[in-house]
Design a protein that fits this description.
Blueprint: E1 9-10, E2 15-17, H1 29-35, H2 40-49, E3 52-54, H3 55-61, E4 66-67, H4 73-85, H5 89-124, H6 126-144
Parallel strand pairs: 1-4
Antiparallel strand pairs: 2-3
Amino acid sequence: MALMCDLRVAHPMLRMGQPEVKAGLGSIVGSYLMSLQIGHSLNQQLSLTGELISGQRAHALGLVNDLVAVDEVLARAIERACALAALPGAALRTTKQRFRERTQGGFEEACSAGIRYQLECYSSGEPQRVMREFIARRDTAKILNPKKD
């Protein structure tokens, strides 16, 4: 989701990545969006392994624009939004439009590919199996470690 935003504000402990592969799904659309931000090799690493990176590393790589303390994220995001809203509307709109024109074809192709490849993943049964295993682990953990009120 964050990769679809114009600007991203995060805190150092954020965990960000493309974990779909760990859920039995292909990393298709997110991988395309990441390709607009970082190089192929790192994109491939994150998309194939499902590894998550910290907010600090995401900032260093350019995936995050502003890195602030966790309690400052919302305030900084609002500050950014207000600064954008104060800019001349036509200039901002046409600039965003041009970025969209440059990337929309690839995004639409990635979405179409995402549908095809996710259907293939679901027909293999892997996402369903991974989800059942996740729920079973979660339910077992709840039984073994009930919350104390």
